[in-house]
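Q: Can I see a sequence and its folded structure?
A: Here is a first one.
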Amino acid sequence: MTLSNDPQLDGIERVLAVFAHPDDIDFGAAGTVARWTAAGVEVTYCVVTDGEAGGLDDEPDREAVAQLRRQEQTQAAAVVGVTRLEFLGYPDCAVEPTLALRRDITRVIRTHRPHRLITMSPERQWVRIGRSHPDHLATGEAAMRAVFPDARTKFAHRELAEAGLAPWAVPQVWLMVGRDPNTHVDITDTLDAKLAALSCHRSQHPEQSELHRMVRDMMAANAVECALPEGRFAETFQRIDTA
């Protein structure tokens, strides 16, 4: 049972976040994750790629970049109370919603058995093209296919059942940057934790003051759209019930 009286956490003991690159979760949901872990919810991160194609353009050793980005994401996760991370190691800028990726995400779902899954939106947004990185879209699509039908279907990816991983039905999915957001979380009290988590990704965001200003402005705009009082900050999601 969760330690919080937050109605958004009723029946939520375990959450799994599936995202494409190190730092994706921190932009989209770190404030929310910090609230949940503080309330006693167990959150696990599943990172599809190591983000080795991004940042540090003067560094030819991309394997070193991959290792650095894993370290940065691990540090960022710790800031918001997450200590369980799974890195799938798919190549950056080459993610597709393949059967192999669906199987790997299904394995993680059946292992951790989450009551809620956070992932990327599989729908392209034309307003801000950066939100619709092909890896984001592919990760979101693969995660949704893993949620339904793969993870809950006994004879999907039979090798998983043979390894002792029983089917698991994820009751709900929250999409980051969903096309039709219908749920918000007031992160005013955890905004500093979100910014601190983002600051761990120095290989990608060396200009910390500009990063913090941009994120504050975005979270404040979200709060206005959600009709929260002035001075509040919010993260928004598209909630999908999958029962």
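Q: Show me another, different protein.
A: A second, unrelated one:
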Amino acid sequence: MPRIVTYNVNGIKARLERLVEYLDEQKPDIICLQELKSSDETLPIREIEAAGYRGIWHGQKGFNGVAVLSRGEPPVERQRGLEGDPEDAHSRYIEVEIGDLVVASIYLPNGNPQPGPKFDYKLKWMDRLADRARMLLAEERPVVLAGDYNVIPNDDDTFSVRAMIEDALMQPESRQRYRTLLTQGWTDSLRTRFPAGGVWTFWDYQAGAWQRDAGFRIDHLLLSPMAADRMTGAGVDKEYRGREKASDHAPTWVTLR
């Protein structure tokens, strides 16, 4: 029963101890990482391999960066980056095959401040993701699109609508594009498991957000119909957010038959 995790590590070198600890304790079969903030040359690949994982990496110096690691069969790369913008040099998308599964690790643009060029880039990027997602659905395979989407899909996915109302993560245009993915036929695994909301995956470092449980849900694992048919559970490993020098995101997971 594969357990597939998405985890924005917020700097893989700064969080290496926490990441290895998580791999050691939870032993996920597949883990999608975001915000590596490291060039390919300086990634701590040796330490990850020593923990029993092999990966496909797509680094970038200082910011962005995504990877997919697996404990059993090594991942085979299918695509890095999204089509539709030859000028886009950001490392935000990597897609692999592991056994019969197709898995993508996604780090969607934040989009703040909005309105402005960063928000425009976010929306265009989401359109490109939707194009790729449509192509993946046409393959009729079990596919998992896992990552930090930087979208709060519903009002009950945040501790405070008022606090987030101006944020790019919660704008109608961001939400509408997220819903576009769902209407293609993707299943939001965490939402399916917790339909009433109130489940967070991110707590800011500022203003005692973790201590107040003032979080929101932006890390999502979307499942193609064939993957959704195999889903047996989904959740957030929340306690890892409370550890010393933790990422501001908690590992978020789905299990498939």
